[in-house]
Amino acid sequence: MFTGLVEAIGRLESRVPVGVGARLRISTNLGPLVLGESIAVMGACLTVDAILAGGFEADASAETLAKTTLGRLPVGCPVHLERAMPVGGRLGGHIVSGHVDGVTRLVERRALGQAMDLAFSLDGSLARFVAQKGSVAIDGVSLTVNSVEPGRFHVVIVPHTQQATSLSLLAVGDWCNLEVDVLARYVARWLEVGRATEEKASDDTMLAKLASSGYL
Fold it and tell me: Is there a contact between 130 and 153 (Cβ–Cβ < 8 Å)?
């Protein structure tokens, strides 16, 4: 599990095809690293398979390459890195699994004082998981959804986030990894399955509890 708070910005040094997947080499001063530990690279959870001087190597499966931007990022580009949160650690962002749901494209950017308003495309299949004032992870960065419109949503990145991540370098048309809030996924799944298996009275009671807790 991750928090969406970027620890370091590394660099993609190489991407070598291995079967249907690829071997990624990442340079970073993040450490000390442990063989087999999980690291979120641009929001995608990867396993450290080799520790090198000044970095590490990890394998990306065909599914990871298809679902994320890791198969299309230019070699040499910066990448966000975060180690898994230790048990008892501070949850500074939100619960991020490192399982990217899909990719999203930056469709608009504008200055908002010292902050920056970024608008991203929103696929119809993921729209039900993205709510105003809810949480998303963009390239592994925990962000609050400022507003939602048909086919897009907005986030605002403050100066600290601009300095600590590479989000401020995004140009309109660039692709990013998107992970929706895991709590939203489970609530949606309960509504799909629970409502079909429980009586309406029980459903209404649970829905009222979810609404009073701010999930609906």
Answer: yes
Yes or no: is domain 8-83 CATH 2.40.30.20? yes
Cα dist. 187→127, 183, 184 in Å? 14, 6, 5
Question: 44 and 37 in contact (C-beta within 8 Å)?
Answer: no
Single pTM value for the model: 0.85
Kindly report, residue by residue over 131-155, the tens digit of the pLDDT.
999 999 999 999 999 999 999 999 9
47-76: buried (b, 16+ CB within 10 Å) or exposed (e) per residue? Answer: ebeeeeeebbbbebeeebbebbbbbebeee
Model confidence pLDDT, tens digit, residues 156-172: 999 999 999 999 999 99
CATH, domain range 102-181: 2.40.30.20
